[in-house]
Known about the structure:
Pfam families: ORF6N. The chain is of the alpha+beta class.
Amino acid sequence: xxxxxxxxxxxxxxxxxxxxxxxxxxxxxxxxxxxxxxxxxxxxxxxxxxxxxxxxxxxxxxxxxxxxxxxxxxxxxxxxxxxxxxxxxxxxxxxxxxxxxxx
Length: 103
């Protein structure tokens, strides 16, 4: 999936690949949001942007707001978790997603 020329992951997909709950991921995001830049680390899709996303990727999104993550955002967010398995999951399940998509 791409948004504004960058490969991205949905919050749900990132949480699943890291092996954490969506709520835990969003809680870490809320704690560290001041360190992240919208448009670089993540995109918040709402209104017309969300409608455009649905037009490209289908109607799989139903919330009024959706966050999608770039490679840099996924990497930074992974670092906010203390559990070693999160880093392992990033290397095994998130990094390959972005690496394969860049070829």
